[in-house]
Specification:
Largest interface: A-B, 20 and 20 residues
Distance between the termini of chain A: 36 Å
Structural class of chain B: mainly beta
Radius of gyration of chain B: 13 Å
Order of helices and strands of chain A: EEEEEEEEEEE
Radius of gyration of chain A: 13 Å
Helix content of chain A: under 10%
Largest sheet of chain B: 6 strands, mixed
Structural class of chain A: mainly beta
Number of strands of chain A: 11
Largest sheet of chain A: 7 strands, mixed
Number of strands of chain B: 11
Number of helices of chain A: 0
Distance between the termini of chain B: 37 Å
Oligomer: heterodimer
Shape of chain A: globular
Shape of chain B: globular
Strand content of chain B: over 45%
Number of helices of chain B: 0
Amino acid sequence: DAGVIQSPRHEVTEMGQEVTLRCKPISGHNSLFWYRQTMMRGLELLIYFNNNVPIDDSGMPEDRFSAKMPNASFSTLKIQPSEPRDSAVYFCASSSLDNQPQHFGDGTRLSIL
Amino acid sequence: KNEVEQSPQNLTAQEGEFITINCSYSVGISALHWLQQHPGGGIVSLFMLSSGKKKHGRLIATINIQEKHSSLHITASHPRDSAVYICAVTGNQFYFGTGTSLTVIP
């Protein structure tokens, strides 16, 4: 049974470049979450979707960040333009409902030079 | 002030010891989560609680809604329990504790 799949696992790019992180939730899960983890701030919720609709994006740091969920099996988190302070591990998680236990992907380790 | 406070921040125990990690929160919640993050970085959801107590193997989680407090207990600790344990609460927003780093020594 496949878990939450994130890609890429690692991304290194220069500041100013566009970065796209991808997530495939567990089949049948209706809620999808994007998190960011840094040493300074710990784990933070960026945005979550229910049934492909963004419910709470108050954690999205600024307009450079955008997230989409065009269908139930795919979501993207885009940063444009990227900055060094965006360097972090980005996790995607899914659950059957937003108040059910979440299953996490392995994360994308992003480094902006 | 953080909405979620965990204690201790760091904990070292001998194999076999009984371990308790505490979490206090200051906001209204619909659920409390305990997450485990291994040194490799992967995150696993251990428990989701809205009342009472849950048990899974050697792990027990309790919550007291009136006192806004939860505890995670590990019985007969083992080196493979070494990880960071994160408390998170969901209500109007999501709030995370800063984590408790546990090291279990053989």
